[in-house]
Amino acid sequence: MTGCPTFLSVGERAEFGRTLSAADIAAFAELSGDHDPVHVDAAFASRTAFGRIIAHGALVMGLLSTTASMMSRRSVERGSPGTPVSAGYDRIRFTRPVFAGDALTARYVIEEVDDARGRTRSRVEVVNGAGETCLVGTHILAWVRAPA
Amino acid sequence: MTGCPTFLSVGERAEFGRTLSAADIAAFAELSGDHDPVHVDAAFASRTAFGRIIAHGALVMGLLSTTASMMSRRSVERGSPGTPVSAGYDRIRFTRPVFAGDALTARYVIEEVDDARGRTRSRVEVVNGAGETCLVGTHILAWVRAPA
Question: Is ipTM over 0.85?
């Protein structure tokens, strides 16, 4: 890769809100194959340290996928010649459980822009309706160019 | 947290195989809110560097959720008094795109066990049917005890 103008700036933000229902969590159990009872069995979950069904971490990360795509779209609309794709995540921490019915907000803030490499690093977080942080970490977008 | 016996050992492995269909990717777009055309619009995707629809990274990470839950279950079945939960991921990298129809295998190998903290660190990876690595990283499980 020979770099790519991203047309994004440090400090730019994207935000996306969504409430994950018990049905959403059950649907993700089907998609992922993870039918762990803490995610799908209310009676079992009531006997755990959490007391009720919790969402899969990867499902909560899905909301960040949406904010990353909002940034990608801006980059393309502003004229970037590359395709921005998710390159990875650093130091993701699930700091509080997410319960069915929690009104979540995913936030994405660009912290570094490297046009020479075609790359951005961004702080990501997901907070619940009480304003408590459930997930924090860093996301990396990389711009890929179509083969010549 | 005052630590917790995990009853897991360095070198233990879990593996889970699944083929993600275009319908699975579309279903995850609904769940996550990420309807980026690279994930749901075949005509658009054909004009990107990838040439066809790719799966969301968070959906691919869902397969690792299943392997982590396989480990959690072993821990509980062996008598751990805690509830193992996903604490986070370090240095996740999406090294190749995942396409609809790819026969994926998720692999989970325990690399560190810390009973004093009630924590394990594991190498995670997802490979496609050609044996190519699509995702690598580290997953952290933490054992939580019910309040006394």
Answer: yes
